[in-house]
């Protein structure tokens, strides 16, 4: 803060001793010490308040940036959902030769298609479903031949 050397303090003390006198000098030093303490406390509180404001402004900036990013992400998701719905509507109108299931296709319909492609057996409830189950079913031994040898 202030750059005061030892010699400067000594000169100030000698002048104060001459001006005030030895009887009142301790009371004066106590009063000056209290004022200096109050000034330091005041400067420290101002400094803390400024730091809090700067920190709060930084938090507000961060909050604004996060809100902007959230709105952008929401817009992207909304656009993706809208484009997916429009594709589904186009496919529902002309399911043709795109190879994709129509918008009204259900999981049961696709499992029936899988079953017809794997020999006509539809997977049972609680059993494995899909191509892996069909491959496992193809490896089972025939009913009359339990040993698995041909």
TrEMBL record:
* Keyword Transport listed: yes
Q: Which GO terms describe its biological process?
A: protein transport by the Tat complex
Q: Is the Transport keyword given for this protein?
A: yes
Q: Which GO terms describe its molecular function?
A: protein transmembrane transporter activity
Mind telling me which InterPro entries this protein's record contains?
A: TatA/B/E, TatB
Keywords assigned by UniProt, alphabetized: Cell membrane, Membrane, Protein transport, Translocation, Transmembrane, Transmembrane helix, Transport
Q: Which GO terms describe its cellular component?
A: TAT protein transport complex
Q: Where is the composition biased (Low complexity)?
A: 95-144
Basic and acidic residues bias: start-end ranges: 53-88
Q: Where is this region: Disordered?
A: 53-150
- Which compartment or compartments is the protein found in? Cell membrane; Membrane
Q: How does it sit in the membrane?
A: Single-pass membrane protein
Question: Membrane-spanning residues where?
Answer: 6-22
Q: Which Pfam families match?
A: TatA_B_E
Assembly, in brief, is:
The Tat system comprises two distinct complexes: a TatABC complex, containing multiple copies of TatA, TatB and TatC subunits, and a separate TatA complex, containing only TatA subunits. Substrates initially bind to the TatABC complex, which probably triggers association of the separate TatA complex to form the active translocon.
Protein purpose: Part of the twin-arginine translocation (Tat) system that transports large folded proteins containing a characteristic twin-arginine motif in their signal peptide across membranes. Together with TatC, TatB is part of a receptor directly interacting with Tat signal peptides. TatB may form an oligomeric binding site that transiently accommodates folded Tat precursor proteins before their translocation.
Q: Which family does it belong to?
A: Belongs to the TatB family.
Name by which UniProt lists this protein: Sec-independent protein translocase protein TatB
